[in-house]
Amino acid sequence: MFSFWDKFSTICNLIYKWSPKKRYRSEKGYRKDLKEYLSKVRLGNILTGYSSLNITCEQGRTRPDLLIDDKIAVELKMNLRSKTQVDRLIGQISHYVYKGYDVIVVLVGKTKEDKKRDIIRAINSFIRYNGFGTPINRIKVITPPKACSLM
């Protein structure tokens, strides 16, 4: 079905603009805040109609923090600082790509720049392309300024 807007890019832009209500002590607080924020959004256009996002929360260790419309996995990480945390995140991303999801990684709090670079370097190897050079899956790392300035 032809669409005039790209849901993945639209959600990435919304997450970038997201401003948490307060400073939370854990990822869980940020996850709940982000879900509430995205739940209020209605996407679409005049031709396709408007609809809310279907968002489910983590239901086990192998599920993303948020799953949007059964297609976009959102993994939220707070204060990413160690190699162990990065390695675990890369494993999670790999699993979501294997399951066929597009992936959005949301970094909140204080993330070391070298760790962010390590993540971006690793995820570039997960992107698969079709015969025309178009990506089959998309992965994006987002650091919402307002979710980091609260720390």
First-to-last CA distance: 42 Å
Largest sheet, if any? Answer: 5 strands, mixed
Uncertain regions spanning at least 5 consecutive residues: none
Mean pLDDT equals 86
What does the overall shape look like? globular
Biggest β-sheet: strands ordered side by side in the sheet: 3-4-5-6-7
CATH topology: Rossmann fold
What proportion strand?
15-25%
CATH architecture: 3-Layer(aba) Sandwich
**How large is the count of helical segments?**
5
**Which percent range fits the helix content?**
25-40%
Broad CATH class: Alpha Beta
H-E string = HHEEEEEHEHEH
Total strand segments? 7
Question: How much is the radius of gyration in Å?
Answer: 15 Å
Number of spatially distinct domains: 1
Name the structural class: alpha/beta
Short structural summary:
By secondary structure, the chain is an alpha/beta fold. Helix content is 37%, strand content 21%.
Give me some keywords for this one.
single chain, 37% helix, 5-stranded mixed β-sheet, 5 helices, alpha/beta, two-stranded antiparallel sheet
Give a written overview of the molecule:
The chain is an alpha/beta fold and 151 residues long. It has helices at residues 7-17, 27-39, 83-98, 113-124, 145-148; strands at 42-45, 49-52, 55-57, 66-68, 72-78, 102-108, 139-142. The chain has one domain (7-148): Rossmann fold. It is built from five helices and seven strands, in the order ααβββββαβαβα. The protein has a five-stranded mixed sheet with strand order 3-4-5-6-7, sandwiched between helices. Strands 1-2 form a two-stranded antiparallel ribbon. A hairpin with a 3-residue loop joins β1 and β2 (49-52). The N and C termini lie far apart (42 Å). The mean pLDDT is 86.
